[in-house]
Amino acid sequence: MHNRMVLLICGLLLLFPQSTVRAERKSSGNPRYDAAVDRGIAFLKTNIKLGETTPEKVVLASYALFKAGEPVDSPIVVAGLKIVNDSITATGFHPHVAYDHLYEAGLFSMFLADVDPEKYKPSIQVMANYVAAVQKPDGSWSESSSRPGDVSMCQYAVLCLWAAQRVGCTVSPQALDRTATWHLNSRNPDGGWAYRPGTNEGTYPGASTRNTTMAVVSSLGVTRLLFFGPEKKKEEKPPEEKRFGVLEKTKEPDEAGLLAFPDFKPQNTRSGLTAGIERGLGFESANFNPVHVHQLFPIYLYYSAERGLSVCEIDKINGQDWFTTYGDGLLTMQNQEGAWNEPRTGDIIGTSFAVLYFMRSTKQIFDKAYGVGRQQAKRGNPFGDKEVKREPTELDLLIGDLEKMDFNALDETPVEVSDEIVRSVISIDDPEKLVGQADKLKSLMKHPNADVRKAACWALGRTGDFKLIPIMLDGIRDPSIDVNVEAIAALRYISRKPNGFGETFDPLKGLPENASPEERVRVVNEWRQKAINSWSGWYFRVRPQEEQDGFDQLELAVPLKGK
């Protein structure tokens, strides 16, 4: 199988001139998210009409596409860069939409800083100077000097200054200090922030919202990062400890080298900024829902959350891994066209925000600047951080080989063969191709290797086909916890229930390390049985009448035996 794939790849390379080879699309580290991003990218490329789509939408989409791996010379990215460069003249920064001047300054400067920091440094400096000049005396920013401060516009003003600092521009730390003071003095008693603090303006007059609160968490997080450096310089581990036997502990960087303004003494202390951040996160936790409901801007939250939680180095919110939990919620909000819609601003902006979230846009910046983040997982690898050298596999070749396999005779198969099956399955990047092959891929659920069964669960679940739910229910009965987890994740995706029925993905969490094997089996089986009962009960309530034969209900009613 391996030799046939090598020949296929070599043949394909000979068919295409080298000039057509493009940069590989970046990965979110989660195949389900990568598939959603692919559909979002296709939507943007189809629906952006150069010369017709408004400039700010073209630039935001260009930035999202670039962060996802689109080459800098692609038409939309080129158009976005031209719009940004045309806004900079000898007389300064000239936004295309007066009201959006700070949004444009923040977005444009981030875009240029990521594309080519040296080339565009002078333009970024112009935008940073503009932002500092229009700051209000109280430390806030707004659409005009006569209007009250707007925490959303403040967020993008701070982002402009951060981009300028990253590329070596002259930036006023006092501007950041003043806006942090304004934020800390303007929060509501519930720990959150309103759109325009101290006023009754906005969609939710005077009330704290998740959107505005996470925008402030982002601003305070960036300010704390620039004034005091990252929170987690390096994890303190014994010298001999390795992560997956590969990553060694590295030397701690000098504290001074992590500070953007080492000689500046801010009025706001690290502890004061941290307290504000924690209050904001407490508000988000109290109002937590992975599927955001907002009258006008439901997708805005996700990109703000990715930014704030990344710069604040937060791993979990509300006790859950935030990237996956928010991501599963965001996944359910994608429509059939591949878009995410913001009712006020439209589907191009909503889709761009979603792509930036899934690409962990801010984490890319943070890791590059501070070198303390984890490397993104490889595209299509649903099994975590394990490095796998993978070659792409053509779907028809895969199915042809699978049909010839006798899985009952594979107990002694070399691990390389099982690994090849896994790599072949996860290399399929189009869910539509999987739909017609589901019946053949079901046979992988009987493979003796748990990694193969896990990959099969992922692939079948990714089709979104409701008829495959009984297969996923059976996956919960699998003796491998990893397969169980992937089956539950598939059920959440197919059912559009990002939280499922509250079942954990770590059934052994909290169990003492010295727990007996019998105790572990008991706990896991109880977890499996509860998940089966919840999901099968839901399925039996909602499945079509023609699929109700009663036999699967009897099978699922049989208690699990120790495994």
Characterization of this structure:
The chain has 563 residues and is mainly α. It folds into two domains: 35-234 and 252-370, Glycosyltransferase (Alpha/alpha barrel); 417-557, no CATH class. The protein contains 23 helices and four strands. It has helices spanning 2-15, 31-47, 55-67, 75-86, 101-115, 121-133, 151-166, 173-185, 210-228, 270-286, 300-311, 322-331, 347-358, 361-370, 395-403, 415-426, 431-435, 438-441, 450-462, 469-476, 481-495, 517-542, 551-557; strands at 88-89, 92-93, 316-317, 320-321. A two-stranded antiparallel sheet has the order 1-2. A hairpin with a 2-residue loop joins β3 and β4. The longest helix has 26 residues, at 517-542. It is globular and about 70 Å long.
Q: How many domains would you count in the coordinates? A: 2
Radius of gyration over C-alpha positions, nearest whole angstrom:
25 Å
Classify the fold: give the CATH topology of the largest domain. Answer: Glycosyltransferase
Number of strands: 4
Q: How is the main sheet built?
A: 2 strands, antiparallel
Structural class, from helix and strand content? mainly alpha
CATH architecture of the largest domain: Alpha/alpha barrel
Report mean pLDDT, rounded to a whole number.
80
Give the strand line-up of the largest sheet.
Answer: 1-2
Low-confidence parts: 1-22, 234-254, 372-395, 549-558
Shape summary: globular
Beta fraction: under 5%
Q: Give the number of helices.
A: 23
Fraction of residues in H or I helices? 40-55%
N-to-C SSE string, H for helix and E for strand: HHHHEEHHHHHHHEEHHHHHHHHHHHH
